[in-house]
Amino acid sequence: MKFLSSLLQKCCFIRRFDPRLCLCNLHLYHHNRFKIRKSYLESRNDSKRCKNGETDSVKLLLIGLDNAGKTTLALHLRKESTNQVIPTIGFTRYELNTLDSDYGDVEDHQDRFEKIILYDVGGGSKIRGIWKNYYALVHGFIFVVDSIDLERFNEIKELLLEMVSIPNVIGKSILMSV
Asked: For binding GTP, which residues are annotated in this chain's numbering (predicted)?
Protein backbone atom coordinates (compact mmCIF):
# COMPACT_ATOMS: atom_id res chain seq x y z
CA MET A 1 0.00 0.00 0.00
CA LYS A 2 2.93 2.32 0.70
CA PHE A 3 4.06 1.80 -2.91
CA LEU A 4 0.67 2.85 -4.30
CA SER A 5 0.50 5.85 -2.01
CA SER A 6 3.94 7.10 -3.06
CA LEU A 7 3.16 6.40 -6.71
CA LEU A 8 -0.06 8.41 -6.56
CA GLN A 9 1.79 11.27 -4.88
CA LYS A 10 4.38 11.28 -7.66
CA CYS A 11 1.66 11.17 -10.31
CA CYS A 12 -0.11 14.06 -8.61
CA PHE A 13 3.09 16.05 -8.46
CA ILE A 14 3.75 15.51 -12.17
CA ARG A 15 0.25 16.28 -13.43
CA ARG A 16 -1.26 18.10 -10.45
CA PHE A 17 -4.42 16.07 -10.05
CA ASP A 18 -6.07 15.06 -6.81
CA PRO A 19 -5.73 11.33 -6.07
CA ARG A 20 -9.12 11.37 -4.33
CA LEU A 21 -10.74 12.23 -7.68
CA CYS A 22 -9.14 9.18 -9.27
CA LEU A 23 -11.39 6.82 -7.38
CA CYS A 24 -14.53 8.74 -6.50
CA ASN A 25 -16.57 8.06 -9.64
CA LEU A 26 -15.87 4.34 -9.75
CA HIS A 27 -17.43 2.59 -6.81
CA LEU A 28 -16.62 -1.07 -6.27
CA TYR A 29 -19.17 -2.71 -4.04
CA HIS A 30 -18.12 -6.01 -2.51
CA HIS A 31 -16.20 -8.10 -5.07
CA ASN A 32 -18.63 -8.14 -7.98
CA ARG A 33 -20.79 -5.03 -7.84
CA PHE A 34 -19.93 -2.14 -10.08
CA LYS A 35 -21.68 1.16 -9.83
CA ILE A 36 -20.70 4.21 -11.81
CA ARG A 37 -22.41 7.48 -11.12
CA LYS A 38 -23.53 9.14 -14.31
CA SER A 39 -23.94 12.56 -12.68
CA TYR A 40 -20.30 12.70 -11.57
CA LEU A 41 -18.93 11.85 -15.01
CA GLU A 42 -21.23 14.36 -16.66
CA SER A 43 -20.25 17.04 -14.18
CA ARG A 44 -16.61 16.56 -15.14
CA ASN A 45 -17.46 16.37 -18.88
CA ASP A 46 -15.69 13.00 -19.11
CA SER A 47 -18.40 11.68 -21.40
CA LYS A 48 -17.75 14.53 -23.83
CA ARG A 49 -13.99 13.94 -23.80
CA CYS A 50 -14.40 10.31 -24.81
CA LYS A 51 -14.60 9.79 -28.57
CA ASN A 52 -17.62 7.78 -29.74
CA GLY A 53 -19.22 8.59 -26.39
CA GLU A 54 -22.63 7.06 -25.80
CA THR A 55 -24.69 8.61 -23.03
CA ASP A 56 -26.11 5.25 -21.90
CA SER A 57 -22.76 3.53 -21.39
CA VAL A 58 -19.31 4.08 -19.99
CA LYS A 59 -16.16 2.61 -21.50
CA LEU A 60 -13.23 1.51 -19.36
CA LEU A 61 -9.83 0.15 -20.37
CA LEU A 62 -8.51 -2.78 -18.32
CA ILE A 63 -4.73 -2.49 -18.33
CA GLY A 64 -1.80 -3.87 -16.39
CA LEU A 65 1.19 -6.13 -16.82
CA ASP A 66 0.86 -9.62 -18.24
CA ASN A 67 -0.58 -12.15 -15.77
CA ALA A 68 -1.89 -9.40 -13.48
CA GLY A 69 -5.48 -10.68 -13.60
CA LYS A 70 -7.21 -8.34 -16.06
CA THR A 71 -9.17 -11.04 -17.89
CA THR A 72 -9.97 -12.81 -14.63
CA LEU A 73 -11.43 -9.57 -13.24
CA ALA A 74 -13.53 -9.00 -16.38
CA LEU A 75 -14.84 -12.56 -16.37
CA HIS A 76 -15.58 -12.39 -12.65
CA LEU A 77 -17.60 -9.18 -13.11
CA ARG A 78 -19.58 -10.96 -15.85
CA LYS A 79 -20.07 -13.96 -13.53
CA GLU A 80 -18.30 -16.26 -15.99
CA SER A 81 -15.90 -19.08 -15.19
CA THR A 82 -12.33 -18.05 -14.46
CA ASN A 83 -10.94 -21.59 -14.34
CA GLN A 84 -9.13 -21.60 -17.69
CA VAL A 85 -8.01 -18.07 -18.47
CA ILE A 86 -5.45 -17.73 -21.26
CA PRO A 87 -3.27 -14.67 -21.95
CA THR A 88 -4.99 -11.99 -24.02
CA ILE A 89 -3.49 -11.35 -27.43
CA GLY A 90 -4.80 -8.03 -28.72
CA PHE A 91 -8.01 -7.12 -26.93
CA THR A 92 -11.35 -8.50 -25.84
CA ARG A 93 -14.52 -6.44 -25.40
CA TYR A 94 -16.87 -7.25 -22.51
CA GLU A 95 -20.25 -5.70 -21.70
CA LEU A 96 -21.81 -5.48 -18.26
CA ASN A 97 -25.49 -4.61 -17.96
CA THR A 98 -25.69 -2.47 -14.84
CA LEU A 99 -29.48 -2.58 -14.74
CA ASP A 100 -29.32 -6.22 -13.63
CA SER A 101 -30.47 -6.69 -10.05
CA ASP A 102 -26.95 -7.83 -9.11
CA TYR A 103 -25.59 -4.33 -9.67
CA GLY A 104 -27.58 -2.30 -7.17
CA ASP A 105 -31.01 -1.16 -6.12
CA VAL A 106 -33.83 -0.62 -8.60
CA GLU A 107 -34.55 2.95 -7.45
CA ASP A 108 -30.97 3.86 -8.29
CA HIS A 109 -31.22 3.20 -12.04
CA GLN A 110 -31.85 6.75 -13.26
CA ASP A 111 -28.46 7.82 -11.92
CA ARG A 112 -26.44 5.07 -13.59
CA PHE A 113 -25.19 4.06 -16.98
CA GLU A 114 -27.09 1.16 -18.53
CA LYS A 115 -23.93 -0.70 -19.41
CA ILE A 116 -20.22 -0.74 -18.79
CA ILE A 117 -18.00 -1.67 -21.70
CA LEU A 118 -14.63 -3.10 -20.68
CA TYR A 119 -11.76 -3.30 -23.14
CA ASP A 120 -9.38 -5.96 -21.86
CA VAL A 121 -6.00 -5.48 -23.55
CA GLY A 122 -2.98 -7.75 -23.37
CA GLY A 123 -0.28 -6.76 -20.92
CA GLY A 124 2.78 -8.38 -22.48
CA SER A 125 5.67 -6.04 -23.26
CA LYS A 126 5.32 -6.63 -27.02
CA ILE A 127 1.62 -5.75 -27.08
CA ARG A 128 1.54 -2.74 -24.75
CA GLY A 129 1.97 -0.48 -27.76
CA ILE A 130 -1.73 -0.92 -28.61
CA TRP A 131 -2.85 0.58 -25.29
CA LYS A 132 -2.50 4.11 -26.62
CA ASN A 133 -5.02 3.33 -29.37
CA TYR A 134 -7.73 3.05 -26.69
CA TYR A 135 -6.89 6.04 -24.48
CA ALA A 136 -9.14 8.47 -26.40
CA LEU A 137 -11.97 5.94 -26.68
CA VAL A 138 -12.53 5.37 -22.96
CA HIS A 139 -13.85 7.35 -20.01
CA GLY A 140 -11.42 5.83 -17.52
CA PHE A 141 -9.04 3.03 -16.67
CA ILE A 142 -8.81 0.04 -14.36
CA PHE A 143 -5.12 -0.64 -13.76
CA VAL A 144 -4.78 -4.21 -12.46
CA VAL A 145 -1.75 -5.04 -10.31
CA ASP A 146 -0.66 -8.46 -9.10
CA SER A 147 0.24 -7.56 -5.51
CA ILE A 148 2.21 -10.78 -5.04
CA ASP A 149 4.62 -10.06 -7.90
CA LEU A 150 6.82 -7.59 -5.98
CA GLU A 151 9.67 -7.87 -8.48
CA ARG A 152 7.61 -6.05 -11.11
CA PHE A 153 6.58 -3.01 -9.05
CA ASN A 154 9.24 -0.81 -10.68
CA GLU A 155 7.91 -1.79 -14.11
CA ILE A 156 4.39 -0.90 -12.96
CA LYS A 157 5.60 2.41 -11.60
CA GLU A 158 7.30 3.30 -14.90
CA LEU A 159 4.21 2.35 -16.91
CA LEU A 160 1.90 4.43 -14.73
CA LEU A 161 4.17 7.47 -14.75
CA GLU A 162 4.44 7.24 -18.53
CA MET A 163 0.70 6.74 -18.90
CA VAL A 164 -0.40 9.73 -16.80
CA SER A 165 1.72 12.06 -18.93
CA ILE A 166 -0.15 11.19 -22.16
CA PRO A 167 -2.68 13.88 -23.22
CA ASN A 168 -5.56 11.42 -23.79
CA VAL A 169 -5.14 10.12 -20.22
CA ILE A 170 -4.75 13.38 -18.30
CA GLY A 171 -7.87 14.12 -16.28
CA LYS A 172 -9.43 10.69 -16.67
CA SER A 173 -10.01 8.43 -13.68
CA ILE A 174 -7.72 5.50 -12.92
CA LEU A 175 -8.95 2.80 -10.57
CA MET A 176 -6.18 0.64 -9.13
CA SER A 177 -7.25 -2.97 -8.66
CA VAL A 178 -4.64 -4.67 -6.49
From this structure: 64-71, 123
Q: What is the pLDDT of residues 58-99, one digit of tens each?
A: 899 999 999 999 989 888 888 888 888 888 888 899 998 876
Q: For 2-177, CATH number? A: 3.40.50.300
Which residues carry a binding-site annotation for GTP?
Answer: 64-71, 123
pLDDT confidence of residue 113: 62
pTM metric for this prediction: 0.69
How many CA atoms lie less than 13 Å away from 105 in the CB half-sphere? Answer: 3
List the beta bridge partners of residue 97. 115
Going by the annotation, the residues of the binding site for Mg(2+) are: 71, 88
- For the ranges 17-21, 70-74, 99-103, the maximum mean pLDDT occurs at 70-74
Binding region: 64-71, 88, 123
Q: In the chain, what are the helix, strand and coil shares in percent, each to the nearest 5? A: 40, 25, 40
The domain limits of the chain are 2-177
Max mean pLDDT range (12-26, 27-41, 152-166): 152-166
Report long-range pairs for 53-56 (Cβ below 8 Å, ≥24 apart). 53/139, 56/113, 56/114, 56/115
**Rounded to an integer, what distance in angstroms lies between the CA atom of residue 160 and that of residue 135?**
13
